[in-house]
UniProtKB/TrEMBL annotation:
Described purpose of this protein according to its UniProt entry: Specifically methylates the pseudouridine at position 1915 (m3Psi1915) in 23S rRNA.
NCBIfam families to which the protein is assigned, alphabetical: PRK00103.1-3, PRK00103.1-4, tRNA_RlmH_YbeA
The protein, known as: Ribosomal RNA large subunit methyltransferase H
Residues annotated as binding S-adenosyl-L-methionine: L76, G108, F127, S128, K129, M130, T131, F132
Assembly mode: Homodimer.
Species in which this protein is naturally found: [Anoxybacillus] calidus
Gene for this chain: rlmH
Length: 159
C-alpha cells in the first residue's frame, strides 16, 4: 500500500520531525509512506470570510495537484466522522482488500480545507471536536495508521 500524507506548510519543530520520522520508519514494514508538503498561503491575522476562502482555495489547488485520479482520499476535518482505532484499522483493511493501493490523507492549513478538496475526498475523518495544530496532527495520524496496521496483523499494540 502507498500512503501519502499531504499537508499544508513546512514542519519546523525538531521534536515533531523526530516523532514523524520514527513512525515513518516503523510503517516501512507495512506500507510505503510519503509526506508531501505544499506551501501555505501567507495571510494577515484578521481576514474577511472572503479572504479566508481565497486562502483555502489556493492551498486547496496545491493539494489537489498532488493527488492522482486513482488515489483514495481521506480528508482530516473536524466535521468528519470519528472512528476508534479499531474502526480505522478495519477501514484501511477493507480499502486494501478492495484494491485501493494508493491512499492520501490530507491535512489542511490553519484555516482548514477548501470546498474543492472536501468534494474530492472519498471520506472525511475527524480525530476530535478539538482543534490540533496541523503539524502535531501529522504525528497523531501516523501513530494511528501504524496502530491500524498492527491491529490488522494481530500484533500487540499499546491500549
Amino acid at each position: 500500500m502507498n500512503i501519502s500524507i499531504i499537508c499544508v506548510g513546512k514542519l519546523k519543530e525538531k521534536y515533531l520531525k523526530q516523532g514523524i520520522d520514527e513512525y515513518v520508519k516503523r510503517l516501512s514494514g507495512y506500507a510505503k509512506v510519503e509526506i508531501i508538503e505544499v506551501p501555505d498561503e501567507k495571510a494577515p491575522e484578521n481576514l474577511s470570510d472572503q479572504e479566508m476562502e481565497q486562502v483555502k482555495q489556493k492551498e486547496g489547488e496545491r493539494i489537489l495537484a498532488k493527488i492522482s485520479d486513482d488515489t483514495y482520499v481521506i480528508a482530516l476535518a473536524i466535521e468528519g466522522k470519528m472512528k476508534s482505532s479499531e474502526e480505522l484499522a478495519e477501514s484501511l483493511d477493507k480499502l486494501a482488500t478492495y484494491g485501493k493501493s494508493k491512499m492520501a490523507f490530507v491535512i489542511g492549513g490553519s484555516l482548514g480545507l477548501s470546498k474543492q478538496v472536501m468534494q474530492r475526498a472519498d471520506e472525511a475523518l475527524s480525530f476530535s471536536k478539538m482543534t490540533f495544530p496541523h503539524q502535531l496532527m501529522r504525528l497523531i495520524l501516523l501513530e494511528q495508521v501504524y496502530r491500524a496496521f498492527r491491529i490488522n496483523r494481530g500484533e500487540p499494540y499499546h491500549k
